[in-house]
Specification:
A hairpin with a 4-residue loop joins strand 2 and strand 3. This protein is globular. The protein is of the alpha/beta class. Strands 4, 5, 6, 7, 8, 9, 10, 11, 12 and 13 form a 10-stranded mixed sheet that branches. A 3-stranded antiparallel sheet has the order 1-2-3, with helices on both faces. The relative contact order is 0.16. The chain starts with a strand and ends with a strand. The protein has 12 helices and 15 strands. The chain has 2 domains: 99 residues, Enolase-like, domain 1 (2-Layer Sandwich), CATH 3.30.390.10; 243 residues, TIM Barrel, CATH 3.20.20.120. The structure holds magnesium ion (MG).
């Protein structure tokens, strides 16, 4: 059960997969990628390989500690995403070896199905009402949209009115039984986040996400005073230590760790336990591929305070390939009345179509986040 090979595959639309193999013939898969920095992520995994080859694949916590603490410098999106993907693959191997799903190794199942949500409207939200109606038609009970496109530090009243009108159009299309989450995407600054939160409140969004950049999270305490909408953040926070301050602050209602960035399945389970102690819900971030989604679902099925799961099926980034394309059996992610059923398979519960992965790795990708500019030519947050 010693690790004897680690392979990386950069595949469309914007993903990086890792396959970790052991000397007794098992293989596990992970997704160690920072969106827009796939080559940097690849280099990080390759550098960590020296610590892994020849090691016992079952010692997941110990290997995590080596990878995390062993470099002296630690944390951040690149190193933590590399560790996350490797860690997912190690759990996949562990579950396969024991013949059980990962959630069975982390306390056992706490639910039978998990509510999921899909994206509408794209980066610069448009056609949201039609897309929301289509998602509901397809069986979703919740959707998420961007609040705005780029926004000036202090922007016009008409931009605020337009954001309210878009959410109102979605409410008109789908009613109030459907959850509609609104992502500020860290592109709104405090002065506008306050008024947006207040003006959107009557339309009862499921939550507002990253109302400010994570480096400005002290502003969440101010936003909390201007609106009763649940506040979510955390896709750009890493490890237990990254979530400590925001939980202690008490202004966040939902944390959104990304299992491909925050440190993997077990690290995110620990973060979720910290959140539970602060009465905070968990909605794992997942705009990535099938392995990241499978890892997220394993967490959801053993985590009492997980309440909804993001999926990237049909997300605007998935040009040229989508979540189901790399699976031998896509039915594991089948949507049934807004929920995905608990997977029964061992490990991560998916079977990767390796031939397809190898074929698409030859195609590769060079996906980058867009660089936006304001009307005056200055750089805007995307
Ligand atoms: Mg987001």
């Amino acid at each position: 059960m010693k690790i004897n090979n680690i392979e990386l595959f950069k595949v469309p639309p914007r993903w990086l997969f890792v396959k970790v193999s052991t000397d007794d013939g098992l293989a596990g898969w992970g997704e160690p990628v920072v969106e827009g920095r796939a080559e940097t992520s690849r280099a990080a995994v390759e550098e960590l390989t020296a610590y892994l080859l020849g090691a016992d694949a079952s010692r997941i916590e110990d290997l995590w500690q080596v990878l995390y603490r062993g470099g002296f410098y630690r944390g951040g999106p690149v190193l933590m995403s590399a560790i996350s993907g490797i860690e997912q693959a190690l759990w996949d191997i562990r579950g396969q070896r024991l013949g059980v799903p990962v959630y069975d190794l982390l306390g056992g199942a706490v639910r039978d199905q998990m509510k999921v949500y899909g994206w509408i409207g794209g980066d610069a939200p448009a056609h949201v009402a039609e897309e929301a109606a289509a998602r509901v038609q397809a069986g979703y009970l919740a959707v998420k949209m961007n609040a705005t496109a780029q926004m000036e530090w202090i922007d016009s009243a008409s931009q605020v009115q337009a954001a309210v009108a878009r959410l109102a159009a979605v409410r008109d299309a789908v009613g109030y039984d459907v959850g509609v989450a609104v992502d500020f995407h860290g592109r709104v600054h405090k002065g506008m986040a306050k008024i947006l939160a207040k003006e959107l409140e009557p339309l009862k969004p499921l939550f507002i996400e990253e109302p400010v950049l994570p480096e400005n999270n002290e502003a969440l305490s101010i936003l909390q005073r201007h609106s009763s909408i649940p506040i979510a953040t955390g896709e750009r926070l890493y490890t237990r230590w990254g979530f400590k301050a925001v939980l202690e602050q008490g202004a966040v209602d939902i944390i959104q760790p990304d299992l491909s960035h925050a440190g993997g399945i077990w690290e995110t389970r620990k973060i979720a336990a910290m959140a539970e102690a602060y009465d905070v819900a968990v909605a794992p971030h997942c705009p990535l591929g099938p392995i990241a989604l499978a890892a997220s679902l394993q967490l959801d099925f053993c985590t009492p305070n997980a309440f909804i799961q993001e999926t990237s099926l049909g997300i605007h980034y998935n040009q040229g390939a989508d979540v189901l394309d790399y699976l031998l059996d896509p039915s594991v992610f089948a949507l049934e009345r807004g929920y995905i059923r608990r997977p029964a398979g061992a490990g991560l519960g998916i079977r990767i179509n390796e031939a397809k992965v190898r074929e698409q790795a030859a195609v590769g990708h060079n996906w980058k986040s867009p660089v936006w500019r304001h009307a005056d030519g200055s750089v805007a947050e995307w």
